[in-house]
Automatic annotation (TrEMBL):
Residues annotated as signal peptide: 1-21
Name the UniProt record assigns to this protein: Laminin N-terminal domain-containing protein
Source taxon at top rank: Eukaryota
Domain (Laminin N-terminal) ranges: 43-73
Annotated keywords: Disulfide bond, Laminin EGF-like domain, Signal
Source organism of the structure: Litomosoides sigmodontis (Filarial nematode worm)
PROSITE patterns per UniProt: LAMININ_NTER (PS51117)
Database matches in InterPro entries: Laminin_N (IPR008211)
Membrane-spanning intervals of the chain: none
C-alpha cells in the first residue's frame, strides 16, 4: 500500500516538475530583442529616436489674446 502511494507521489512530482520546466523553458529559448541604444557587447551608445512630426498637416489656431480676459479653453 505504501509503495503505491509513494509511487503515485513520485510520478505526480515528476509531472509537475516537467510541466513547470516546459513552461519556463519557452522564456529562456528566446533571443532578446535588439536594443538600438546598446551595442552587441551591451555598452550604451548614443541613441536618438526617429523624429515624428505629430503636428504635420494639422490646422493651427493662434491668437494674440492669451490671458487678456483670464484663462480660456
Amino acid at each position: 500500500m505504501y509503495f503505491l502511494l509513494a509511487t503515485f507521489f513520485v510520478v505526480l512530482s515528476l509531472r509537475i516538475c516537467h510541466t513547470w520546466a516546459a513552461y519556463f523553458s519557452q522564456f529562456s529559448l528566446r533571443e532578446p530583442e535588439h536594443d538600438p541604444c546598446y551595442d552587441n557587447a551591451g555598452r550604451p551608445v548614443r541613441c536618438v529616436p526617429d523624429f515624428i512630426n505629430a503636428a504635420f498637416g494639422k490646422p493651427v489656431i493662434a491668437s494674440d489674446t492669451c490671458g487678456q480676459f483670464g484663462p480660456s479653453r
